[in-house]
Amino acid sequence: MILSPLLTPALVTVGLTAVAVGLRGVLLKQLTVRMGRRGADSLDLLHRALRLPSLLWSLVLGLYGGTEVATLPPRLTARLLLVLHVLIVVSVTITAANLLAALVVRFGERRTLAVGVTGLARTAVRALVWTVGLLILLDDLGVAITPILTALGVGGLAVALALQDTLSNLFAGIHILADQPMRVGDYVKLDSGIAGFVEDIGWRSTRIRLLSNNMTIVPNATLAKSAITNYSLPEPRMSLEVRVDVSHAADPDQVEKVLVEEATQAAGAVPGLLADPPPVVRFIPGFGESALQFTLNCTVATYGDQYLVQHELRKRIIRRFRTEGIEIPFPVRTVELRPSDGKARP
C-alpha cells in the first residue's frame, strides 16, 4: 500500500528516460554516420557537446513525467518542476557556451583569423552565452530583471572609473582583434624592440614568445600604441639578403655566377630556402675600401628560417670561393709617410 502510489511515477520515469536515451543514441549514431561520410568538424563538435548533457536531459525528462503523474502536494510539485527547469537551463547554457566557443575557434583556424583562436574571443563568446542564460534563469525564478539592469547601468559608471586601465586593455584587445594587425602564430616586432611569435591575445594582455623560448607579456593598451612590424603579413615568406665581400682582383661576373649557382643548389637541400623566386646577385653596395661588395638575395619560407639558411649558404660560399680561387680579403689600409718637406720617401 505504501509503494503503490510511487509505482506509477517510477514506471513513467523509467519509461520516459529509456525512450529519451534511445532517441539520444539514434541521434548520436546519425551524427557519427554523417561525420564519417563528410568529415564535418562542426558535426564532431556537436557530437562531443551533446554526448554528456543529453544524458542529463533524458533523466530530467523522465523525472518531469514522473512528477506529473505523481500525487504530490502542489507546492512540492512546483518546487520540483522549478529545480528540473533550472537544471535544463544551466545545462543548455553550458553546452551552448562550450559549443559556440569551439565553433569560433574552428572557424578562426579555417579562415586564418585572429578572432577565432584567441582567449579573448573564446571568453567573450562564453560570457555572452552565460549572460543570456542567467537572464533567462532569473526570469524563470521570478526575479525582476529591469531593476537589476538599471542598477548595473548606474554602477557601471563607477566601475568604469575605477577600472580605467583594465577597460583600456580590454577595448585595446578588441581593437586589435578587429583591425587584425597580427594573428596568433605571426612573428612580429614592436618599436620597443620586442620580437617573437604571438601566442595569444587575451582580454588584458598579449603573450609573445621570443626566439629564446621565453614569454613576454605586453598590455594590450601598450600594444595598440606601438608600431608593429609583422613578418608574417601579407605572407610568411620573406626576402633574405646575404652580403659577400671579395677582393678587388676578382671577376664580378664569376662572383655573380658562383653565388647564384650555390644558392640555387642549396634551395633543394637547405630547409626553409625557396627556389621560387630564383636567387639574384646585385653589385649594389659598391666599392669598399678593401673589397668589392655584393649582396645575394634569396627567399626563405618564414622569418625563423633565415638563421639556418644564412649559416648553410655562408659555408657553401666559402668552400666554393676557395675552389674557384676567389679571395675574401682582410681590411687593408696603406699608410704613406712623408717628411716635413712634403716629399715622399723613396
Structural write-up:
The radius of gyration is 35 Å and the shape is elongated. The longest helix is centred in the N-terminal third of the chain and has 38 residues, at 74-111. The termini are far apart. Strands 4-3-2-1-5 form a five-stranded antiparallel β-sheet. The protein has three domains: 7-143; 172-230, SH3 type barrels (Roll); 238-324, Alpha-Beta Plaits (2-Layer Sandwich). It has 346 residues and is an alpha+beta fold. Helix content is 57%, strand content 15%. The model is unreliable at 112-117 (pLDDT under 50).
Low-pLDDT stretches: 112-117
Count of individual helical segments = 10
Overall mean pLDDT: 78
User: How would you describe the shape?
Assistant: elongated
* Helix percentage: 55-70%
Distance between the termini: 136 Å
Q: Largest sheet, order of strands side by side? A: 4-3-2-1-5
* Domain module tally: 3
The sequence of SSEs as H and E is HHHHHHHEEEEHEEHEEEH
Characterize the biggest β-sheet.
5 strands, antiparallel
Strand content: 15-25%
Broad structural category: alpha+beta
Radius of gyration from the alpha-carbon trace, in angstroms: 35 Å
What's the arrangement of secondary structure elements?
Elements: H1 4-38, H2 41-51, H3 53-69, H4 74-111, H5 119-140, H6 145-162, H7 164-179, E1 187-190, E2 195-201, E3 205-209, E4 215-219, H8 220-225, E5 228-230, E6 238-246, H9 252-266, E7 273-274, E8 280-287, E9 292-300, H10 306-324
Helix pairs in contact: 1-2, 1-3, 2-4, 3-4, 4-5, 9-10
Which structural traits does this protein have?
346 residues, SH3 type barrels, Alpha-Beta Plaits, four-stranded antiparallel sheet, 10 helices, 9 strands
